[in-house]
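Submission sheet (multi-component)
Chains listed below:
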Amino acid sequence: MYLFANATIYIGLAIAIYSLLIITLGISTKNQKLVDSGKGGMIALFVCAAMAMISLFYLLATSQFQYEYVTDYTSSELPIIYKLTALWAGNAGSLLLWTFFLTLYMIMIAYSRKMKGNPMVPYISAILMVNAVFFFFILGFVAKPFVLMDTVPTEGKGLNPMLQNPGMIIHPVTLYLGYVGLAVPFAFAMAALILKNVDDFWIKMTRRWTIVAWLFLSLGNIFGGQWAYVELGWGGYWAWDPVENASFMPWLTATAFLHSVMIQERKNMLKVWNISLIIISYAMTLFGTFLVRSGVLTSVHAFANSNLGLYFLIFMGVAVILSLYILMSRYNLLKRSAGEFNSFISKESSFLVNNLLLVGAAFAVFWGTIFPLVSEAVRGTKVTVGMPFFNKVEAPILLSMMFVMAVCPLLAWQKSTVKNLRRNFMIPAILAIIGMTLMVVLGIQKAWAVIGYGVIILLLATHFLEFYRGVKARRKMTKETPVVALYRLMIRNRRRYGGYIVHLGIAFITMGIIGSQNYDVETMKTVGLGQSIELRDYRINYDRLDQKKEGINDIVYADVTVFRNGKKLGTFQPEKVFYGNWEQPSSEVAIISSVKEDLYIVLSAWEDNGKATFVVKVNPMMDWLWFGSFMIVIGALFALWNGKYGNVTPRYTGVRKEVS
Amino acid sequence: MDLKGVGLMKKNTLVMLGGFIIAGAIVFLLMAATPGSSGVELTMKELLATQAQHKDDFVTVEGLLMENTIKWIPDKIQLKFDVKDNHGNVMHVIYHGTKPDNFSEGVITILQGAPTKLNTFQAESVKTRCPSKYEGKDMKNYDPEKHKQLLDKPTKK
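Outcome: structure written.
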């Protein structure tokens, strides 16, 4: 087994190098046979990565503690699902997962029907293959998954209990799919530049793959936030931690690309900008990995520190320099035949503003993340910027972003006339103003909340109008019932309406964020048995403190009965778990959700006489956040789905005689 | 909105100008927000030497916990304890909150707050750090000596 498992890695490295060389040779000599051989190598590589995954899964599942990785992250009493998911608990395993996804994406592209006969394929393959060589090199020499111990321990060290949560099963997987996914548009962009062929087909394919990566990145971030909310016991979901920022930055730049590429499609503009965004997004995934794995920043997520981060930094540096070189050498080609802006107030310029805001937001996150390093280098003291910094900077940027999102759908391409503006925005603007006035009258008076919700009302109104007008126009021609018309309208314009659904999802998330950030209340109180804590409309009766045993873990729990406005909601058990094989206990919070708000109860300390200290929070509108996340996924899938009608990415029909 | 009146200037240039204004605004926002919401990371020695000038700052400082000084008053939810460093400096800490997990002798505590009174640190957050935080290392081999060494180079861990 040891031999087999290690063989998958080293043979994989050999195959990756071979394929890279043979494809490059095939491209330069225009020899289809050589390219085909390299493509065969891709399948072999995928098999290697899959075999390595299966080996590690097998070793973890059967608790083969002679392997260091198995010992470090599992123990024999762990439920089987967490034994398996321990694969991505540590460095080596998570990089193996990353490599596996990379090889998977590679064969999906090289053997895709749509890409058949496309001369870009060998280039894309070669570029992705460079990534594969890097990852197999790391697995083979830096973070080795299959290392034997000198002595075989009888028991493993166990999996960090915080990672024993359903959220952690899926969060890393989705995040890595997103990270790796961004390598694909990068490879497409580079291939197109090398071939001097940035055409419509390229745009469609790149955009599709970017949506895939974007969807997974979004999911990864959402699952991460949800995990933090239920598992970490501080009542929040986003802490602007370096690691969170590392996945948020590529998300922002990828979002910017998805929008600005539409202008390229329509008007043949912003080509250099778009390719730069792809390069930045890709570089950010590597930079994020460097941050997380190198330990240069203090972070709650920090993995074991190693020189792994350095390799990523070097790889990123090389990738960025090479890609910038290619971009510069093709600069004239891209510059040619560019369109022009016709007016300040048009869809194009609103897209541009949107892009600047997104990239600005990404830059602000970047600035805050690396600020401690910069200040240490420049002034000698490490100046930290915390959550308040990020909230202060990002709130206005992202709120302006929401405003642009609200007005953009109803702006015309080319130029919006005053008449056009009045027709489109009169009703939404009035609605928003009425809404804001109502809020102030009804007691919602915090500036952020009023402005934020006002903008969201505007957004909902403009998006409703967009749907409404689409249906109306369709019915005029087809005489369908409204529901049928809406359905057909949407499935025939998947990208557009999928995008709108995502917008609505973002609106719901924003409502949740504004509500939970501005109107949360928290209390910390020590109470005796039988006493109660009151917070807003809630009364929490502390009935009992007890202890139980679950497997090798000891659990201390409190029985609390919760009443809202005098009505009983039920009995809940916030608990603290002491692990048999882990030093730090962890809190299991009790969360009582409703559409309006979450009640969040943490048992934080207790005395011998039965007194206990609770932290109780009310987090308004948390469900809105999760609902919005759900809509984002639906919207992105809707835009991706290949329907029967139109909008299917065309097959390549180029005429150039090339290797493919 | 018609831009005919603008005359010779190219519209692209104008739009770009608008773009620069937005970019400028974001940079301004960054500059404005940085000092107000940032804090400084100091060692205990530096902090104790310059307490007065950091009175209103948001300071991050690390120290080794002295277990026998812990006083926990549940009804007031107040935690008092002392931390020391390797140079014999001792600082009192007051914190409104509960004991963090793993609060034992010699563990590195990360304190955030301000030195409001002489040799007394009013902490807004108290966290503990051990070298093996998220790795499955055996905590039974926990070694206060190792923490002492680690304290001197806190950022590199």
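Remark: Residues 644-648 of chain A have pLDDT under 50 and may be disordered.
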